[in-house]
Specification:
heterodimer; A: 113 residues; 0% helix; globular; B: 112 residues; six-stranded mixed beta sheet; four-stranded antiparallel beta sheet; 53% strand
Chain lengths: 113, 112
């Protein structure tokens, strides 16, 4: 069984569109994250949710809006996509407010044309 | 704020060579330390972690890392690399209750 699953795996879209990436974890973790990995493989935290509440919101454009309907899900909605949004987006989860290791999803490769 | 640096951007080795990847962090308090590996086209997976105790930790696939508190370092080692170790390696730091901070990654290419 996949611990952290995110869909879709690939997303190709035009500039200006709105898209969503879904993430679900079946590990019973309290904390979920979204990371962005750019073309140089640099990993940057975007958001962190603990028990459905936003904990970390790094400098991310308002076009990015996370939504956590319950603690097992953390979706990422992106409005008005721009070329610079092209990257791989990883969902992750951990227990005990990040004191344990991170479990990563398989990533969503977003290409904005 | 915490930061993590990794000494090498790209390391190229022949099979059976020994590996050491450097990692330094900036936070002076108690931290948890991790090494993650990302094989081509895949997600990040945990190689090993240090929370407390013996500063020499052993992970999967023959990797080990040594925590040297005085140097704020957590270097990754493997005595003999294989072609299948070709991947991106990330050092990460987590301060209790805070966010994970990742280093910029080191790409390892192992030549057969």
């Amino acid at each position: 069984d996949t611990a952290v699953s995110q869909t879709p795996k690939y997303l190709v879209t035009q500039m200006g569109n709105d898209k969503s990436i879904k993430c679900e974890q079946n590990l019973g973790h309290d904390t979920m994250y979204w990371y962005k990995q750019d073309s140089k493989k640099f990993l940057k935290i975007m958001f962190s949710y603990n028990n459905k509440e936003l904990i970390i919101n790094e400098t991310v454009p308002n076009r990015f809006s996370p939504k956590s309907p319950d603690k097992a899900h953390l979706n990422l909605h992106i409005n008005s996509l721009e070329l610079g949004d092209s990257a791989v987006y990883f969902c992750a989860s951990s227990s005990r407010e990040g004191r344990e290791k991170l479990f990563f999803g398989s990533g969503t490769q977003l290409s904005v044309l | 704020a915490q930061s993590v640096s990794q000494h090498n951007h790209h390391v190229i080795l022949s099979e059976a060579a020994s590996l050491e990847l450097g990692c330094n962090y900036s936070y002076g308090g108690t931290v948890n330390l991790f090494w993650y590996v990302q094989y081509p086209g895949q997600h990040l997976q945990l190689l090993l972690k240090y929370f407390s105790g013996d500063p020499l930790v052993k992970g999967i696939k023959g990797f080990e890392a040594e925590f040297i508190k005085s140097k704020f370092s957590f270097n990754l080692r493997k005595p003999s690399v294989q072609w299948s170790d070709t991947a991106e390696y990330f050092c990460a730091v987590n301060n209790y209750g805070q966010n994970f901070v990742f280093g910029p990654g080191t790409r390892l290419s192992v030549l057969p």
